[in-house]
Design goal:
This is Alpha/beta hydrolase. It comes from Pelagihabitans pacificus. GO terms for molecular function: carboxylic ester hydrolase activity. With 420 residues, this protein is α/β, with parallel strands linked by helices. It contains ten helices and ten strands. It has one domain: Rossmann fold, CATH 3.40.50. It is globular. The structure holds alpha-D-glucopyranuronic acid.
């Protein structure tokens, strides 16, 4: 029998070889030559020239591709959906906003899942547009507000946020206020709706918990090859939040926002549900806004290796074979057209490939053009901190992988022009 130390060595070597195989490239001169898959030619070669043809032919086949081979298909519908107002208060955010906390319950196959929506709404207007976005560690981390409930779902440990034993406590309250410019939103007439993503699907390579488990047939333990990974599950959760929000008379429009892996989820939610009035992708990178075929920074092989639960298993066929992808992420962005879309990068976030995010927005602009909407008209990356704000917007800000006040100031000013 092999000794445990040899097994450990063998496993470590295998893991290292997978990582060296998918070593990131940060050298622009080593980006492979590739053809950008055409938005206006169907998979069987038909040319598209009008928005109606895009909607009837090209959009559905691209949507199907992303569903079957990238994020994965949702295997069916819920049996029941319900919600309950847990509490509300009129004096939140320095007296400028109302707070509501709503529990949403999803039921399928006699199993159920609950998640809590935290809402801040500006006072003084009968109904307001809101930004809807997941947070990484619990609703109580986005604000110092002592009334915000602490999640008891599994939480990734984080020393800076004082989260240990995979449980959030009072110690992490307000620790992520830097990423959520709530008062700026309220002052501009916008509300915020946020959910802890771990309540919808815990972010670990384990398919026994979260949303997936609700949908299993007798004896099933993980999704089928073309079925959903966690990104599609988080996107599903956003659509369920929308089922509530569209019936809350205090809300006029919903713009979804997401940072990084949650930006990938926001884009997929926006592509699959046109009730979202707009989409904001903050540093979403590989499998989000960045073109996969550039193979710059994180690659398909690398992301599938590090996060095997994020995508459908079918996506693994493109590990190290980006040239074989029949579609790329600009086509995901185009699925959101003609609704407003903001793609944002950070100059030090090379892992997410800012240029690949920009180019995807640039190429997607073709479809915005079909609808007479303005997108990005040049393929030259704009200067740092010089946003281009059309229906399709883009900025690259100084600094690293994060959500900063600068980002929110841009999103708010852009959204004010489009939604207020
Ligand atoms: C990792 C991962 C990225 C992801 C990021 C995040 O860096 O490789 O794809 O976007 O985590 O979610 O913060």
């Amino acid at each position: 029998m092999m000794k445990p130390v040899f097994i450990l060595l063998a496993v470590t070597c295998m893991m290292q070889s997978a990582f060296t195989q998918f070593e990131p490239n940060y050298d622009e001169s080593k980006v492979p030559q590739f053809e950008v898959p055409d938005l206006l030619t169907t998979f069987n070669g038909e040319k598209i020239t009008k928005a109606e043809q895009w909607e009837d032919k090209r959009r559905p086949e691209l949507l199907r591709f992303f569903e079957e081979e990238v994020y994965g298909r949702v295997p069916g519908n819920l049996d029941a959906f319900s919600f309950k107002l847990l509490e509300q208060d009129d004096s939140a955010v320095n007296g400028k906003a109302r707070r509501k906390q709503v529990a949403i319950t999803l039921e399928k196959n006699k199993r159920s899942l609950n998640f809590n929506l935290l809402l801040y709404l500006p006072k003084g207007s009968p109904s307001a547009p809101v930004f809807l976005g997941y947070n990484f560690h619990g609703n109580h981390t986005v604000t110092h507000d002592p009334k915000v409930l602490i999640t008891d779902a599994w939480n990734e440990n984080n020393e800076a946020l004082e989260i240990s034993n995979n449980k959030a406590t009072e110690a992490s309250r307000g620790k992520r206020t830097n990423r959520w410019a709530i008062e700026k939103m309220i002052d501009a007439g916008f509300g915020l709706a946020t959910i802890y993503y771990g309540e919808v699907d815990p972010d670990k390579n384990d398919f026994t918990d979260g949303l997936h488990a609700l949908f299993y047939k007798e004896g099933q333990e993980r999704p089928e090859t073309n079925e959903w990974g966690s990104i599609a599950a988080w996107a599903f959760g956003l659509r369920c939040a929308m089922d509530y929000l569209e019936n809350d008379g205090d809300i006029s429009k919903v713009v979804i926002f997401g940072h990084s892996r949650l930006g990938k989820a926001a884009l997929w939610a926006g592509a699959t549900d046109n009730r979202f009035a707009g989409v904001i992708s903050n540093d979403s990178g590989c499998g989000g806004a960045a073109l996969s075929k550039r193979q710059f920074g994180e690659t398909v092989g690398r992301i599938n290796h590090s996060f095997p639960h994020w995508f459908a298993d079918a996506f693994e066929q493109y590990n190290g074979k980006e040239e074989q992808l029949p579609a790329d992420q600009h086509q995901l962005l185009a699925l959101i057209a003609p609704r407003p879309l903001y793609v944002a990068s950070a100059v030090e976030d090379q892992w997410a490939d800012p240029k690949g995010e920009f180019l995807a927005a640039y190429y997607a602009s073709t479809i915005y053009g079909l609808y007479g909407k303005a997108g990005i008209t040049t393929d030259e990356l704009p200067a740092v901190d010089r946003p281009i704000q059309n229906t399709l917007a883009y900025h690259i800000r100084s600094g690293g992988h994060d959500v900063m006040d600068y980002d929110w100031e841009q999103y708010i000013s852009w959204a004010k022009k489009l939604f207020n």
